[in-house]
């Protein structure tokens, strides 16, 4: 699902399938995804209890002949059968409608600390069954709180060490690329104070990895 910035602050009357008020943007997008005829939807936010959702059976090609509507954005549903939004390009957080997601370094990702569900395409603070893949957050890291600190280890070996750990449950990895340092932790960014998980300053080459959820 992609926001069409060319059509910002415009309301359309073409091929309207359905309209509703007082919906979340996530709910509006989900309604479009579940409607096989829906190609685009507009979502307007004017404040609490002042939202509008409108589904359309067509894409938009022209900005002319449409009504000016401040706070309105048009979204294109690129794949109505599988809404796997994680990793899709974004310009800001408005491009990432899923609850507890954000635009991180130009990609829609779950906010650090939230687990991405590969089956439900959601972001959750809890996960009962961890997956074997990882979501990467460039330049982010968690200070200390490590279960293991292993030097001179490749990224694939670091992943494998995490997945096969038996004395603790591995949930995150901090990997330093310039010296191949693998730091494995059982905590996420939600488990530590905000000042403990931070972005690297200039010259730092680190990536934070969080396991997905099934």
Automatic annotation (TrEMBL):
Q: Which SUPFAM superfamilies match?
A: Hairpin loop containing domain-like
| Pfam families in alphabetical order | EB (PF01683)
- Organism domain of life: Eukaryota
Q: Where is the Apple domain?
A: 127-213
Q: What is this protein called?
A: Apple domain-containing protein
| Upper classification of the organism | Eukaryota, Metazoa, Spiralia, Lophotrochozoa, Mollusca
């Amino acid at each position: 699902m992609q926001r069409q910035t060319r059509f910002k602050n415009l309301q359309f009357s073409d091929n309207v399938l359905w309209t509703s008020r007082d919906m979340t943007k996530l709910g509006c997008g989900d309604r479009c995804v579940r409607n096989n005829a829906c190609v685009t939807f507009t979502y307007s936010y004017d404040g609490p209890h002042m939202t509008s959702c409108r589904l359309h059976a067509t894409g938009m090609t022209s900005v002319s002949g449409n009504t000016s509507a401040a706070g309105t954005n048009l979204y294109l549903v690129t794949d109505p059968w599988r809404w796997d939004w994680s990793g899709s390009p974004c310009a800001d957080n408005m491009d990432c409608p899923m609850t507890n997601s954000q635009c991180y370094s130009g990609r829609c990702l779950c906010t650090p600390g939230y687990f991405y569900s590969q089956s439900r395409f959601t972001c959750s603070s809890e996960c009962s069954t961890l997956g074997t893949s990882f979501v990467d957050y460039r330049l982010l890291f968690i200070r200390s709180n490590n279960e293991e600190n292993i030097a001179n280890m490749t990224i694939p070996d670091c992943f494998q060490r995490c997945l096969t750990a038996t004395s603790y449950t591995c949930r995150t990895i901090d990997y330093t690329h310039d010296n191949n340092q693998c730091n494995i932790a059982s905590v996420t960014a939600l488990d530590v104070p905000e000042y403990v998980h931070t972005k690297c300053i200039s010259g730092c080459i680190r990536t934070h990895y969080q396991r997905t959820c099934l």
